[in-house]
Amino acid sequence: MSIKKDGIMVILSSPSGAGKTTLVNLLSKNKNFNISISHTTRKPRINEIPDKDYYFVDNEKFKKLIKNEEFLEYAKVFNHLYGTTRTPVIEKLEKGENVIFDIDWQGADQIKNKRLNYKLITFFVLPPSKNVLFNRLSNRDMKDKLIVEERMKEFSRDVLHWINYDYVVINDDLDECYSKINSLIEAEISNGSKDYDKDYIRRHVDILTC
Ligand code: ADP
Ligand code: 5GP
Predict the structure, then answer these.
(1) Helices 130-140, 145-159: inter-axial angle, 10-degree rounding
(2) pLDDT tens, 22-67?
């Protein structure tokens, strides 16, 4: 008789521009994680594909989903609403498929507090420096200097949430950061030893916030 094995949930959060979407895509491609597709009331970016990157909806539709209690979590981020609907996530986990989330600290807190019966691993991604973050945001949101300014302003507040995550990783070299996350997930799954230095992270946060 085979024993049913549920999927696991992995959450990646970060200050905007640190690279979590890039890392989530890599984890999905290389490790077969299903990316949880969020609903949002913000407008699509030029390179974004509706129903793949996000379900883009208006305020009215979003509020209806709230009223019908369809969200596992939702939050207001940068003046827009973002949320994860419950059914697609639970269906995948029940089938033994893993699900990865690119959500902010408010959503991560809500999912953690639900204490669902599935393994949950949370990661917070940091940039190597504020300069690098500024350059990444500027390259990505080239046309919109206001977005870059707004997200740099939020950085000092966002970064303080690192303390609530299982692991914090620094996204300097992309391949190295990906390997670090991958090995921590593997160690969590197999209950193996974890190569993780929290004091080093604490010092890095001190430098980022001074
Ligand atoms: P987030 O989802 O955290 O807002 P993104 O994944 O969109 O961030 O990354 C922001 C920008 O930085 C993107 O243009 C992405 O291609 C780039 N980027 C991500 N990780 C790295 C890295 N390690 N080195 C250089 N550029 C990166
Ligand atoms: P962006 O607009 O850059 O795609 O995302 C802005 C922020 O919203 C990011 O921090 C991202 O992780 C977060 N976000 C995206 N989807 C969700 C979601 O479903 N729930 C929550 N709480 N945050 C989300």
Answers:
(1) 140
(2) 999 999 998 889 999 999 999 998 889 999 999 999 999 999 999 9
Domain boundaries, the chain: 9-36+96-209
Q: What is the pTM of this model?
A: 0.95
CA distances from 100 to 25, 32, 57, 71, 162 (A): 9, 10, 21, 16, 18
Give the mutation target among 38, 52, 105 for probing the ligand 2 site: most ligand atoms within 8 A of CB. 38
d(CA 9, CA 7): 7
Q: Which CATH class is domain 9-36+96-209?
A: alpha beta
| Any atom of ligand 1 within 6 Å of the Cβ of 147 | no
Please give the number of the atom of ligand 2 that sits closest to the Cα of 108. 22
Place of tokens 């620094």: 170
The answer, yes or no, to whether any atom of ligand 1 lies below 6 A from the CB of 20, is yes
Q: By the 8 A CB rule, do 26 and 32 touch? A: no
